[in-house]
Amino acid sequence: MEEFDIQDIDQETPAEDVFIAPSFHEVKISAGVSYTYHSPIPTLIENNLSTECVLGVDEAGRGPMVYGLLYLPLKLHRSLLAETHHFDDSKVLKPKVRSDLMQALCTAGTDLHESCGWATRVMSARDISSGMLKPFGPYNLNAQAMDATIELIKEVFAQGVNLKEIFIDTVGKEEVYQKKLERIFPTTKITVAKKADSKFPCVSAASVCAKVTRDAALEIGYQAYQLPGVRAESLKTSADAWGSGYPSDARAIAWLKQHMDPMFGWGNESRFSWRTIKDMLDAHESGVEVEWPDVIDDQQARRMTDFYITASAMQQDDEPEDELTTWYGKPVSDSVF
Length: 337
Known about the structure:
Distance between the termini: 51 Å
Radius of gyration: 26 Å
Structural class: alpha/beta
Largest sheet: 6 strands, mixed
Number of strands: 6
Strand content: 5-15%
Shape: globular
Number of helices: 14
């Protein structure tokens, strides 16, 4: 479980008036559906697809989790992102600053819009939990994160972008992850590193794409809990109510305790594979305990041979053999098995 100090929690809290990027899909987020968004290829690259590009990948969150990706011409990597716009790890940037940077990235006519392409993969809390809570062979969070990253990169390659270098913030052991990616993308130089979002500007920018998209997702998720008929000026924002969504944030814990349904727990915004939520469900005195029957009872299990039609079943009471029935051969009997 990730722990954050007070400063980190403040930085992880969504901006009060977060920019709603094109990567935000209200219907799918409200329904707990995972989805991918790709921006159009920027003009500077589209006009010459042979342009050598650099790409960065980073993630935001662990409840609903968003993977962000950003690419741009290699020659502009540090000058545009670090020197001109001062991109940094999204957890270091003030919420308003990262929201403004994302808005510039999405605004036609800006240098960021003309030079940078980006994408996000929104992994819903519901889908993450479904994978992690599978009864046979759980699909752990690191594996889900790696697969999301690989698919995003493949989709950029499929658009014809000439990626020469890729930088990724690590998931698990960086050397293992890097070797896996090098096998999949053998013609591209790949660097997987810890704290890559504070070392490489393209990863910093990808971090902003992911974080601002998640900020908007948290805000729309919270609006579903607002009571109808309440005046707009009296409504809280998600930042006031459930904060950053991390276990070290007292606002998040307080909100979970106050809004727990005794039968269903919470909605699509909560990851039920999260230890904090498991503990709350187990400890809640008014919770309803449900016992599920085994899917298959040993006594009801059938043998594979039960699904074969045997010769004795096809021919009973010494009936004459049907020539058409055995035209291509006779069925095998149980004794063969």
